[in-house]
Amino acid sequence: MVNKCLFPAAGYGTRFLPATKAVPKEMLPVVTKPLLQYGVEEALSAGITTMAIVTGRGKRAIEDHFDNSYELESQLKGTPKEHYLNDIKKIIEISTFTYARQKKMLGLGHAILTGEPLIGDEPFAVILADDLCVCNNDSVTLQMIELFNEYKCPIVAIEDVPINKINQYGVISGTLVEGSKRIYKVKEMIEKPEIDKAPSSMAIIGRYILTSEIFEILKNLKPDRNGEIQITNALNIQAKQGKVLAYKFEGKRFDCGNFKGYLAANNHFAKDK
Ligand code: G1P
Prior knowledge:
Elements: E1 4-8, E2 29-30, E3 33-34, H1 35-45, E4 50-55, H2 60-65, H3 70-76, H4 86-94, E5 96-101, H5 108-114, H6 116-119, E6 124-127, E7 131-134, H7 140-151, E8 155-160, E9 170-176, E10 183-191, E11 202-210, H8 213-220, H9 231-240, E12 245-248, E13 252-255, H10 259-270
Parallel strand pairs: 1-4, 1-6, 4-5, 8-12
Antiparallel strand pairs: 2-3, 6-11, 7-13, 8-11, 9-10, 10-12
The protein binds 1-O-phosphono-alpha-D-glucopyranose.
1-O-phosphono-alpha-D-glucopyranose is lined by residues 108, 128, 131, 169-170, 191, 203-206, 230, 232, 257.
């Protein structure tokens, strides 16, 4: 059973400076809701109620957001604005939020390893909040958990991206699992390859189901040439043992890590307002 979701949320968000100087990038709003709240709602939609958030310095707004705000609530009580807090109050009521602080920015793999005390010895989901996904039916995380329950191995979500952008992603090569159009058995994974060395155009997007085996692998993994511990390289060790699946998810992703994707997400959600 996947009962916990880890949210790496310690990055600086430099692409959104100066907005992210004092505000965590995960708290940037898409219309009126912070990016991280979309991620938490996705985890809840997949039946997960324990959120393990890996934060860092200057990220206290995240903890305050997912906590009661008695002063604000009493100010709004009985006014026509009271309902604005309904959704977030419900989330706070049904979820447990746990936190670990990443002391140094040493890559996504290191952020995930920092969350080990919050996860323990069980499978878990990972959501990178700046990949904002919308689906008609089941959320991406729910789609992946259903797959995990069947295959019981690590799974990464993938998407075909234009080849000139492939160097911004972890990339997989693999073969379709018999009888499936969306599930690949991963042969190899490479983090941000040069365009002419990319093994395919299938990019990893910010959704993973991992097993606790990954923590030992991460502890023993050498940093890459930028000094970072990459989750892609850790998973590649499991992939070489034939243990990793990649899943072409059903739905649409907005890359809110850059301005164009962020704007597109805002336009998409503004339509519902
Ligand atoms: C991270 C991962 C990368 C993945 C991407 C998805 O990169 O390292 O493998 O493709 O997330 O968004 P980042 O965007 O943090 O540089």
